[in-house]
Amino acid sequence: MARELENSLLNQHKEKHFTAGEIVRDIIIGVSDGLTVPFALAAGLSGANASSAVILTAGVAEVAAGAISMGLGGYLAAKSEADHYMRELKREQEEIIAVPDTEAAEVAEILSEYGIQPHEYTPVVNALRKNPKAWLDFMMKFELGLEKPDPKRALQSALTIAIAYIVGGLVPLLPYFFIPTATKAVAASVVLTLMALLVFGYAKGHFTGNKPFRSALQTALIGAAASAAAFGMAKAVQG
Amino acid sequence: MARELENSLLNQHKEKHFTAGEIVRDIIIGVSDGLTVPFALAAGLSGANASSAVILTAGVAEVAAGAISMGLGGYLAAKSEADHYMRELKREQEEIIAVPDTEAAEVAEILSEYGIQPHEYTPVVNALRKNPKAWLDFMMKFELGLEKPDPKRALQSALTIAIAYIVGGLVPLLPYFFIPTATKAVAASVVLTLMALLVFGYAKGHFTGNKPFRSALQTALIGAAASAAAFGMAKAVQG
After folding, report:
1. pLDDT of res. B5
2. Which of B60, B128, B130, B199 suits A153 as a labelling partner, its CA being 20 to 30 A distant?
3. Do the beta carbons of residue A50 and residue B48 sit within 8 Å?
4. 3-state DSSP of A186-220
């Protein structure tokens, strides 16, 4: 009971070190790109005198493509990381059985990097040798730096990023749904998206423990830079 | 001398565990999205009867916007991770000075998770207590799981991803530069991009240690899914 309380207190202490969970990270990834690229694409196309209809077609197509690319791509990447973990786990397990002296030397190497002397680390090495499961966990974490992936995470991450991208992407496109004249729609889109970028950038800074105002400005700046580039390239292709 | 050789052998042994460097990872990230989204956007727009000129304008604008979003976004994310590391380093340093008993208890906690008994880990804890620099490194790595970021990496990563995205994105757009009739250009784009996706997917599998043929098929499948979604959404908006 006391140990559980102690564990819980230590875990809470560790968690205070981290200010953004993995889901928040995925939302940030999705919304960051979703707010920026469709906005820039729409702004660039309006600069090239496209109609709201064309801009909407391109914008919605891009949001769909981007959501799938990021979502499905992220899902497969997470799955392949999980496969990688299992392969490394299997290899490490074989090494512990086949070449335990080499593995024990690796533990010694790891600990000696922290100025720990042989007479100090040898009891630890021997303790691990007698406990193959713990030894395996130790090697996975301290030699390879790999954490056991949660099987649910791949799908969860993919859906979060894809939905975040769609939500982010629809914000700059909304005006084009309602305002047929592209030049008017783009003005509304710029205002709407700029506000969204500043608010989102602020939230991003808050959740990642970075200065929120600076984060807001940086996020808006990326949006501005991306749309300037899109605008410039669209003009270059047209002219 | 013998120790350096031993270090070198152990490092090589560790490196064999990893089959993709960080630069390769950034190239994979950039080319994956670059091959997929501009291709899908162009295919979707051609399905909505846009001309090659419009498709090119949209495509090039999207590549510019995407490269900036990913590149600049990636750069700022890497910088903020570096800031996060420095903040955690500072906090950990303060804790080692202010509450050494709590920090020592954390080391004990970490080692006891591997079945190591107090009489076995206490010499290690005491050795760390006498060596504050090593203790700090130990806490950063084993409690927080943070690696010291290379200051060059942020810029290097951003440029790699942005350039990879541009190179990836130009592949499906090339036919539209030369073939004015969109329906003909899209056929060439599909063939060109499908080949590029398969080759790239194969290479990706090879470098990440995953089955290359399966990776090739998955990569092509994402491209197909993204363009189907873009095609469908473009038709939906048009009709």
Report:
1. 53
2. B199
3. no
4. HHHHHHHHHHHHHHHHHHHHHHHCCCHHHHHHHHH
Question: Which tens digits make up the pLDDT trace of A4-46?
Answer: 555 554 444 443 333 347 788 889 889 989 999 999 999 999 9
Contact predicate A64/A198, CB 8 Å: no
pLDDT in tens, A139-176: 888 888 888 888 788 898 899 999 999 999 999 999 99
Chain B residue with the nearest C-alpha to that of A68:
B226
Sign of CA dihedral A111, A116, A122, A126: negative
ipTM, 2 decimals?
A: 0.82
CA B113 vs CA A17, A141, B92, B139: distances in Å: 20, 12, 21, 15
Q: Say which residues have a Cβ less than 8 Å from residue A229's Cβ, sequence separation at least 6.
A: A40, A44, B64, B65, B67, B68
Contacts of A76 in chain B (CB under 8 A): 218, 222
Alpha helices per DSSP H over B99-211: 100-112, 118-129, 132-138, 153-178, 182-208
> For residue A166, how many C-alpha atoms fall within 13 Å in the half-sphere facing its CB?
14
Chain A residue with CA closest to B67: the answer is A226
| Mutate: best of A8, A27, A35, A60, partner B, most B CBs <10 A | A60
Is the model's pLDDT at A220 over the cut of 90? yes
- Decide: A64 and B37 in contact? Cβ < 8 Å: no
Asked whether B156 and B23 are in contact (CB, 8 A), the reply is yes
Mean pLDDT confidence for B34-41: 94
pLDDT digits (tens, 9 = 90+) for A166-211: 999 999 999 999 998 888 999 999 999 999 999 999 998 888 778 8
pLDDT at A17: 37
Residue A10 burial class via C-beta count within 10 angstroms: exposed 0-12, middle 13-18, buried 19 and up: middle
- Rounded to 5 degrees, φ, ψ at B152 are -75, -20
> Would you call B27 exposed, middle or buried from its count of C-beta atoms within 10 A (0-12, 13-18, 19+)?
buried
Instruction: Measure the CA–CA gap between B117 and B16, rounded to whole angstroms.
Output: 32
